[in-house]
Design brief:
The protein is of the alpha/beta class. 36% of the residues lie in helices and 13% in strands. It folds into two domains: 115 residues, Aspartate Aminotransferase, domain 1; 251 residues, 3-Layer(aba) Sandwich (Aspartate Aminotransferase, domain 2), CATH 3.40.640.10. It has eleven helices and twelve strands. The strands form three sheets. Strands 2-8-7-6-5-3-4 form a seven-stranded mixed beta sheet, sandwiched between helices.
């Protein structure tokens, strides 16, 4: 019944891990929140636009059980990670940044640049289980200053025990940074349970909010320690003070903001998040897992790279058919299924607007491909 709230696709759209479908009311929301104030053409346009960005921060606070001052708009996760790496004070003897080899490559690229600041990166090997808390405990050593934790891995849909990992990091004085790009909007998140130092996310995927509306959440306890170098007038405690000799960091997470911001992406994302919150992330999660499970139960275990236990996976189904992979791709394409394929497997991600009968078509395509192998 929720499919009527989103613009339909001409095929079976299972690319929600990449770009979510826009709500039908998205264009109207952008017109009202962005274009109409602009078209009025007076000096009040910026107060109106900035109020919309504040709406974005408040909406994120509702979605993730945080507080508005803890959120700062960002363009994307890579930019946000760069800002915080340069802002954090280095801890003597703790120059190692820990990440997992299965993390999204863009995040690794950013952390490699931190070596210019005297950091060194260390990766937990790709063949280790990222869901194994013992594996994290072995690597969270005394030399580690920062740990990147990916809530849901993009190529396997493995769902990590973030609260347990951040608790270990906190006990050892390690700064925790959590990437929620592949989970926010399809897995319920409570920032109060995690007690992380930073959380980075975007709205283009499961939140159906389009590109350009990323965000950085900062634990209020760590904000005073951070001094970003990529600043601008919106990083200032009083952006409209206009004294070139007096820069003071904003007291809240907005110190991570910067110069003149984009506005339209946040208007769109605010509206989309609101639509999803009205549906309920728990309900979205339940529907998504029912759709994924419907396929998992019909496939041979060896072909399913995603954890079979629903409690241990995100919203994406990842399958690999070996010699029959080409057959699987052709079957899905012939049925007008929208998915993507990487060397690691085929990724299919149902959202709240996908129907059971669509997943039955997917099951039949993959079953036929398996038989052909």
């Amino acid at each position: 019944m929720f499919e009527d709230q989103f613009i339909p696709h001409d095929g079976i759209y299972l690319l929600n891990h990449s770009v979510g479908r826009p709500p039908r009311t998205a264009r109207q929301a952008v017109d009202e929140g962005f274009f109409e104030p602009w078209e009025q053409g007076d000096a009040e346009v910026w107060p109106s636009w900035l109020a919309r960005v504040d709406d974005f921060r408040r909406t994120l606070a509702t979605l993730l059980n945080g507080r508005q001052p803890e959120f700062c708009p960002q363009t994307n996760l890579s930019s946000a990670l760069t800002k915080l790496i340069h802002a954090l004070p280095k801890q003597s003897g703790r120059e190692t940044i820990l990440l997992h080899e299965r993390d999204f490559p863009s995040m690794g690229f950013v952390l490699q640049q931190a070596e210019r600041l005297g950091y060194r990166t260390r990766m937990i090997a790709a063949d280790s289980d990222p869901q194994d808390l013992g594996e994290w405990e072995r690597h969270l050593g005394d030399d580690v200053g920062i740990a990147l934790i990916t809530h849901v891995h993009s190529n396997t849909s493995a769902l990590l025990p973030v609260a347990d990992i951040t608790a270990r990091a906190r006990q050892r004085g390690i700064v925790s940074v959590v990437d929620v790009a592949q989970s926010v909007g399809v897995v319920p998140i409570d920032l109060g349970e995690w007690e992380a130092d930073f959380v980075l996310g975007s709205c283009v995927k499961w939140l159906c909010g389009g590109p350009g509306a990323g965000f950085l959440w900062a634990n209020p306890g760590i904000i005073p320690q951070c001094e970003p170098i990529d600043v601008g007038w919106f990083s200032h405690a009083e952006p409209f003070e206009f004294d070139i000799r007096d820069f003071r960091y904003a007291e809240d997470a907005l110190r991570f903001w910067g110069g003149t911001p984009s506005v339209m992406p946040y208007v769109l994302a605010t509206h989309s998040i609101g639509v999803l919150c009205e549906i309920g992330i728990e309900q979205i999660r339940e529907h998504n897992q029912a759709m994924v499970q419907k396929v998992v139960e019909q496939l041979q275990p060896a072909s399913v790279l995603t954890p079979r236990d629903p409690a241990r996976r995100g919203g994406t189904l990842v399958v690999q058919f070996g010699d029959s992979q080409r057959a699987a791709i052709e079957k899905l394409q012939a049925a007008n299924v929208r998915f993507d394929g990487r060397a690691t497997g085929l990724r299919l991600s149902p959202h709240i607007y996908n129907k059971e009968e669509e997943m039955e078509i997917v099951v039949e395509c993959l079953r036929q491909a398996g038989e052909s192998g």
